[in-house]
Design brief:
The protein has 267 residues and is an alpha+beta fold. The chain has a single domain, classed as q2cbj1_9rhob like domain (Jelly Rolls), CATH 2.60.120. The strands form three sheets. Strands 1, 2, 3, 4, 9, 11 and 12 form a seven-stranded antiparallel beta sheet that branches. Strand 6 and strand 7 form a beta hairpin. Helix 2 runs parallel beside helix 3. The protein binds fe (ii) ion (FE2). Fe (ii) ion binds next to loops.
Length: 267
């Protein structure tokens, strides 16, 4: 855990390896596929297709933006995002990094990348950007959770240590100026591992040339006691873990800590 913390401080990002069970990932893929089939109204077993084929079929009827939104909400309703945050190795690392009072952004948006996305699609193939530009607070961590990632699909490209440059001036969703010399790295990550980025780490989307779709969940996590250093107050967060202090506050029920709830005064 110390190593992961050190890496984020030094490079602006780190990977928590094998922290989500492949069984849970299968469940999430299955749930996504079921939602696609229900929307496509596929009834007979013989018409059932795999996830990528169902996606491409639905993309003929709905925009990619609408599909991403629909599937993101579906995973929340199906309690599968909650289940991700119940994975022990993941939650323990997050607690080590930013403390036990944790919440996650339920307004997140699933990132789908298919071979048809072109570099002109700035929304789906993003140029170098900082999450800070769209309101993520400096106190938060950005997770990038691969759900369907195969060899050759590509991931994210990251500018190492760019979080130390502060807020980079930008226009039209790209930096106005970058230093002459910097180091980039393509994120090496497998299904079951999770990448963590700071709000200031510059990163871009790598185009997916695989015939299947790449699916990842970019989700912000924050300690709800940390001062908001962005626009976090404008978004919806769900609490996922409480410290002793928070549990006791909730038990006592009010900020005066009066014993009305926990102690009977009648003899
Ligand atoms: Fe991003």
């Amino acid at each position: 855990m110390k190593e992961i913390s050190k890496n984020i401080v030094k490079d602006g990002y780190a990977i928590i390896k094998n922290c989500i069970s492949l069984k849970l990932l299968d469940k999430i893929q299955l749930s996504i596929n079921e939602k696609l089939e229900n929307t496509l109204k596929v009834n007979s077993t013989k018409n059932k297709q795999n996830l990528s084929k169902n996606y491409y079929n639905l993309a003929k009827k709905l925009s990619q933006f609408d599909i991403q939104k629909m599937l993101s909400e579906h995973l929340i309703k199906d309690n599968l995002i909650d289940k991700i945050f119940k994975e022990e190795k993941l939650i323990e690392n997050l607690i080590y990094l930013i403390g036990p009072d944790l919440s996650y952004l339920i307004d997140y948006e699933m990132a789908i990348n298919d071979k048809k996305n072109t570099n002109k699609d700035y929304y789906f193939i993003k140029k170098y950007h900082q999450e800070f530009w769209s309101g993520m607070g400096l106190e938060s961590l950005q997770l990038w959770i691969p759900i369907n990632l195969k060899k050759g699909m590509g991931t994210l490209n990251i500018i190492k240590s760019s979080h130390e440059w502060g807020h980079i001036p930008h226009q039209d969703r790209q930096p106005l100026k970058l230093p002459k010399k910097y180091k980039t790295e393509n994120l090496k990550i497998n299904n079951g591992s999770v990448a963590i980025l700071s709000a200031l780490t510059l990163h871009s989307t790598i185009k997916n040339n695989h015939k299947d779709i790449r699916i990842a969940l970019p989700i912000t996590v924050r300690n709800f006691y940390y001062p908001n250093k962005g626009n976090s107050d404008l978004f919806n967060f769900k609490k996922i873990n409480n410290s002793f202090f928070t549990i006791l506050r909730k038990k006592l029920g009010n900020p005066q800590y009066s014993p009305f709830r926990t102690m009977s005064l009648k003899n």
